[in-house]
Specification:
InterPro entries: ACT-like_dom_sf (IPR045865), ACT_dom (IPR002912), D-isomer_2_OHA_DH_cat_dom (IPR006139), D-isomer_DH_CS1 (IPR029752), D-isomer_DH_NAD-bd (IPR006140), NAD(P)-bd_dom_sf (IPR036291). The chain has 387 residues and is α/β, with parallel strands linked by helices. Helices cover 32% and strands 21% of the residues. The strands form 3 sheets. Strands 8-7-6-9-10-11-12 form a 7-stranded parallel beta sheet, sandwiched between helices. The chain has a 5-stranded parallel beta sheet with strand order 2-1-3-4-5. The structure holds nicotinamide-adenine-dinucleotide and 3-phosphoglyceric acid.
């Protein structure tokens, strides 16, 4: 029996994929697995029982990744599962920023009791007029799951699209339209584009990347869209640039006191992934990842451990070792297993940064005593007897 808890509501279509071997618990301290969306886990005490965290979504800045890795807790996310939902919000953002659609709708609400509203509207409409996006230049910073979809869709809307991502994956590059201009210096996007949209993860290296210096390089009347994370942008600098009419609109999905209610800011309440389809996709992927890890020891789509998958286990036993990425670890495992007269029939070892993962299929199930010997090796963070 595996026990799990949900720190946010998770779509039922995902939870329904859990078998009778899974029991939901309310208290984190009783859980082996956590399903979470945006709830912050930074201040939580993580129990020793916890084996895995699955973020039903993309951004993992709400999870202490290294702290989890040090405790042998594998953190997963669901790459791409909500990308279409966000793409559609970005397209809406481009249009909302181009004509004052929101202001026009508000005016209608305020004027609803005017008998000659139709005539008044014809006079008023010039106040809400704007431009078309067709023919304008869009800069997409970050060409991952979302950025690629946004870039490709914008080409179909007649935009000239510039794309920047120095770390683009092979898969994303394959999916990117050949009509997207590849930019190798982000400053070209700042200087050339009418609309700039950011789709990078929040990391130490990306925090505040759209700062005053970047804004100063931008065209007068630029529109900045941020459906990634608020801390990527120096929003105080954006609000000042809006007041100076340097920036025409700032469209963002992350309300906070700096931007809420400010002139020129179009704010949505973190709606990017809030569609039935995205919520279902994320929940299903997250649950499948958790199940494959707890039941088979396989890691797929982890953000703090390497992916490492050997499929189902058809040998007598399987043991998983979560460890530091140090020299000489495997020799020590083979020695412990050899001393216990256990033969390794298959194995896989992968590393990611400071952490590594070794899966071993063996001809005799590993006992608690042998597992304890493996766990006592310096640099080993956790040992799981999977079968
Ligand atoms: N508003 C929402 O509801 C919502 C929904 C999903 C994701 N997001 C946010 O969007 C982010 C991106 O999501 P995704 O699914 O596209 O992730 P992803 O991992 O598929 O793509 C991120 C891309 O950013 C690139 N990148 C990293 N550093 C960069 C840099 N300095 N300059 C340019 N590119 C850089 C990476 O190479 C990668 O291709 C998430 O991390 C999350 O914060 C928000
Ligand atoms: O990073 C993400 O996936 C998004 O910000 C969505 O967050 P949510 O699952 O809390 O809507």
């Amino acid at each position: 029996m595996f026990q799990y808890t949900c720190l946010n509501p998770i779509a039922n279509v995902g939870l329904d994929l859990l078998s009778d071997d899974y029991k939901k618990v309310e208290d984190l301290k009783d859980a082996q697995a956590v399903l979470v969306r945006s709830a912050s886990m930074h201040d939580l005490d993580l129990p020793d029982s916890l084996e895995a965290v699955a973020r039903a979504g993309a951004g993992v800045n709400n999870i202490p990744l290294d702290k989890c890795a040090d405790k042998g807790i594998v953190v997963f996310n669901t790459p791409g599962a909500n990308a279409n939902g966000v793409k559609e919000m970005v397209l809406a953002g481009l249009l909302l920023a181009s004509r004052d659609i929101v202001g026009g709708i508000e005016w209608i609400k305020e004027s609803k009791d005017e008998a000659d509203i139709a005539k008044l509207a014809e006079k008023q409409k010039k106040n809400y007029a704007g431009c078309e996006i067709s023919g304008k230049k869009l800069g997409v910073i970050g060409l991952g799951a979302i950025g690629v979809l946004v870039a490709n869709a914008a080409t179909h809307l007649g935009m000239e699209v510039y794309g920047y991502d120095p770390y683009i994956s092979v898969n994303a590059a394959w999916n990117l339209s050949r009509n997207v201009k590849h930019i190798s210096n982000v400053e070209e996007i700042y200087k050339e584009c009418d609309y700039i949209t950011v789709h990078v993860p929040l990391l130490d290296s990306t925090k505040g990347m759209i700062d005053k210096n970047a804004i100063d390089m931008m065209k007068d009347g630029v529109v900045i869209l941020n459906f990634a994370r608020d801390l990527l942008v120096d929003e105080a600098a954006v609000v000042a640039a809006l007041a100076d009419k340097k920036v025409k609109r700032y469209v963002t999905d992350f309300p906070n006191p700096t931007t809420a209610g400010k002139e020129g800011v179009i704010l949505t309440p973190h709606l990017g992934a809030s569609t039935e389809e995205s919520e279902d996709n994320c929940a299903m992927m997250a649950v499948r990842e958790i199940r494959d890890y707890l039941e088979n020891g396989n890691i797929v789509h982890s953000v703090n451990y390497p992916d490492c998958s050997m499929g189902g286990c058809d040998k007598a036993g399987r043991v998983a070792v979560l460890h530091k990425n140090s020299k000489g670890m495997i020799a020590q495992y083979t020695s412990v297993l050899g001393d216990a007269d256990i033969n390794i029939e298959d194995m896989m070892n992968k590393s990611k940064g400071d952490y590594a993962y070794t899966l071993l299929d063996v001809d005799t199930p590993v006992t608690k005593e042998v597992a304890a010997k493996l766990e006592a090796i310096e640099g080993v963070l956790k040992v799981r007897v999977v079968k």
